[in-house]
Amino acid sequence: MKPSDFYVGLIEFFSIILPGALLAFLCLRLSSHHVFGDLLPPIQSSTEGWVIFAFAAYLLGQLVSLIGAAFMDWLYDHTYLPLRRLKSDARFDKAKELAGANGSLVGVLKWARAYVRLRSADASLECDRFEATSKFFRSLFVVLLVYAADFGHRREWLALFITIALLMLAFWRYCNQRWKFTEFSFIYFIELQVKAN
């Protein structure tokens, strides 16, 4: 086990738990008032409450991450990415050329990422940092959408406006960090390929 394994595991842990905790907090109110009512047994102690909350945060965080991976990655690929590649993306083109048939088989980014992970722990750690940050904001965006829907339903317009502003910032940060993750993955892949040859 390397220190980088712990670092990445910790960041990914928080990128699931923190958005999950925000959603669990909202779901607690919604489920107790609108879904289950008095059917839920009362929580007996603060320890029991924290265990239930931690489990709900982890479970909801995993679901949010799954939804974010499908929805947000598609949105990124069809909005931000084409704008960044409007003229050209020399790093991607070079990485695609170097990856060859392997890039066609699994995708250029996945191949570049696996290659960097196997060849350089330091480069991999930097890429992991960008990836983990992008995953956090990807999940946060999904959670903020749920909050926006709730505020809109309750007609809390100021809270809705603030949430929409946070949504836009979360989307921008997600896109920015995902772009850096892909670009640094390609840069390190190209550099390591050049050194190997």
Overview of the structural elements:
The chain has 197 residues and is mainly α. The protein has one domain. 87% of the residues lie in helices and 0% in strands. The chain has helices at residues 3-35, 46-78, 80-84, 90-99, 101-106, 108-119, 121-153, 157-196. The chain is elongated. The mean pLDDT is 84.
Question: Which segments are poorly predicted (pLDDT under 50) over 5 or more consecutive residues?
Answer: none
Largest sheet: none
Count of beta strands: 0
Our measurement of the CA-to-CA distance between the termini, rounded to an integer number of angstroms, reads 29 Å
Q: What string, H for helix and E for strand, traces the elements in order? A: HHHHHHHH
Q: Would you spell out the secondary-structure blueprint of this structure?
A:
Layout: H1 3-35, H2 46-78, H3 80-84, H4 90-99, H5 101-106, H6 108-119, H7 121-153, H8 157-196
Helix pairs in contact: 1-2, 1-7, 2-7, 4-6, 4-8, 6-7, 6-8, 7-8
Summarize it.
With 197 residues, this protein is mainly α. Helix content is 87%, strand content 0%. The chain has one domain (3-196).
Using brief descriptors, characterize the structure shown.
mainly alpha
